[in-house]
Amino acid sequence: MKNVISLLLLSLIVVGCGQSREEKAALFAENEVKKILNDASSYEAVETRLDSAFTSIYTDYEACAAAYKIAELRSKQEALQDEYDREKSSAAIWSNSWDAYSKEQHRQAKKEMEEIGNRLKKVNDEIEENKMIIKNRYKSLDENKFCGWAIYHRFRCANGLGIKSLADILLVTDENFETLQIRMLLDDNDPQGFEQIKQTIDGIIEK
Q1: DSSP letter string over 49-77?
Q2: What distance, in Å, lies between the first and last C-alpha atoms of the chain?
Q3: Orientation angle between helical segments 194-205 and 61-94, nearest 10 degrees
Q4: Smallest Cα–Cα separation from 71: which of 118, 133, 125, 130?
Q5: Which residue in 123, 120, 182 sits closest to 148, CA to CA?
Q6: What is residue 142's predicted lDDT score, i.e. its pLDDT?
């Protein structure tokens, strides 16, 4: 019985060692993609392409995380600016009236402007902080150095309504397919997809 078990273990080791890079990449992609799906059972692999990965500002974790944050903050910034402009218009409307009601409306609008302005300043400061992270990473990064593998993976999965659709994702892993370095959807319309992140970074480093 021991001999049988030993032979089985040996055969498993041989099979594992015999995996090609492409097979390892496909398995790695499947495992990582399933972690982020609402319905992992709906996952269906379509295509996997493997390429060498080199250090780049566009796949640097800190730079991309800062770019993600900037995308979120810019949405907040836009909403707050709209609020601020509305209160500013309101204050202007009531500024030329001098009855008690008008004065109170003017006072409230000015107070709202001040509060929104403070929140807007905090968001603006956060945006600048994240811009500096990207700039500093760009200056310090040793680009074009081999760092592992870039996996371009296409798959199908069901959305919240149960409808299956195609999706493309980029995963960068170490050379042993053990550690995920970064994961980004390849969707031009996704505000946190690769193309949008690249545009954000380009605008900051003026590349």
Answers
A1: EEEEEE--TTT-HHHHHHHHHHHHHHHHH
A2: 65
A3: 80
A4: 130
A5: 182
A6: 93
Residue 172 burial class via C-beta count within 10 angstroms: exposed 0-12, middle 13-18, buried 19 and up: buried
Give the separation between CA 205 and CA 58, rounded to whole angstroms. 11
Provide the token pair at 150. 């870039």
Q: What is the β-pairing status of strands 180-185 and 164-173? A: antiparallel
Assigned token pair, 145: 């150095």
Q: What is the pLDDT of residue 81?
A: 97
**pLDDT value for 17:** 56
118 CB neighbour count, 10 Å cutoff: 10
Q: Domain-by-domain residue ranges, the chain?
A: 20-59+142-205, 73-131
Amino acid found at 34: K
How confident is the model at residue 1, as a pLDDT? 46
pLDDT at residue 172 in the model: 97
User: Running DSSP on this structure, what letter comes out for residue 192?
Assistant: T
Looking at residue 96, its pLDDT comes to 83
- CA-to-CA distance for 126 and 69, rounded, in angstroms? 9
Q: Cα dihedral angle (194, 198, 199, 204), rounded to 10 degrees?
A: 150
Separation of alpha carbons 16 and 13, rounded Å: 5
pLDDT in the model for residue 6 = 46
Low-confidence ranges of the chain (pLDDT < 70): 1-17, 207
At residue 197, the pLDDT reads 94
119, two tokens: 């929140």
